[in-house]
Amino acid sequence: KFPVMGVRWRSSLTLGEKEEVNNKNSEDGGNKEVVASYWGIKGEEVKKEDGTPWKWNCFRPWETYQADLTIDLKKHHVPTTFLDKLAYWTVKSLRFPTDIFFQRRYGCRAMMLETVAAVPGMVGGMLLHCKSLRRFEHSGGWIKTLLDEAENERMHLMTFMEVSQPRWYERALVFTVQGVFFNAYFLAYLASPKLAHRVVGYLEEEAIHSYTEFLKELDKGTIENVPAPAIAIDYWRLPADSTLRDVVMVVRADEAHHRDVN
């Protein structure tokens, strides 16, 4: 749940919460209608395969999937060229302050880093979109691939928001880090898309390492293995009795896929 000035965005409310708000408005004599769309436009009613109402507005049933847990987690692109080495050591240098700041608070670490992880796909997709328009040419499917990657990383954030609540200074940090990273990555992509994708690939390798450490802490009992958030169960089509460990497993698999793409 993501409070903003004491409330949550309408688009993040589930169907049941909307009904509760509507009932309260009726009791108070209000006539405001809570709608699904961020823009205030009521969308069509969506249902699950079993006919029950779909309760999420940030994604739809046809966007759900089952993560491939058999993916190779140890694959590594050995840096050979100058750009490879530049990307590799840039990412390694960024890990040092991150480890100091978050230490072993892996739940909050995951949530905060996902606010940055969703930036590259959006930037790359946007620039390729504009390039396709300028040159009157097809993109080879890369625009959708990168935008899907950005959306997947955003869903990681939506999930971990339900597990860990950020502190006020961590929220403030997001503005700074995201602002710097967005512009830096934008310029890097303009200069060399290959370098930009290499950076993301090595970032994803580090993400796999972080989520592996997260799993170790869960297995040791240092972090409580709470029930999986409902949003994660629906998004990854997990069993109803899934736990936080199951969520970390599928998120780590997603990161491995993004590593291979980039």
Automatic annotation (TrEMBL):
Free-text remark on how the cofactor is bound: Binds 2 iron ions per subunit.
Cofactor(s) required, per the database record: Fe cation
Stretches of the chain forming a coiled coil according to its record: none
Gene3D superfamilies xrefs: Alternative oxidase
GO CC annotations on file: mitochondrial inner membrane; respiratory chain complex
MF terms in GO: alternative oxidase activity; metal ion binding; superoxide-generating NADPH oxidase activity; ubiquinol:oxygen oxidoreductase activity
Top-level division of the source organism's lineage: Eukaryota
Keyword tags: Electron transport, Iron, Membrane, Metal-binding, Mitochondrion, Mitochondrion inner membrane, Oxidoreductase, Respiratory chain, Transit peptide, Transmembrane, Transmembrane helix, Transport
Main location: mitochondrion
Keyword hit for Iron: yes
Subcellular location: Mitochondrion inner membrane
GO biological process: alternative respiration
E.C. number: 1.10.3.11
Topology with respect to the bilayer: Multi-pass membrane protein
Summary of subunit composition and partner proteins: Homodimer; disulfide-linked.
Family from the record: Belongs to the alternative oxidase family.
Protein name per Swiss-Prot or TrEMBL: Ubiquinol oxidase
Source organism phylogeny: Eukaryota, Viridiplantae, Streptophyta, Embryophyta, Tracheophyta
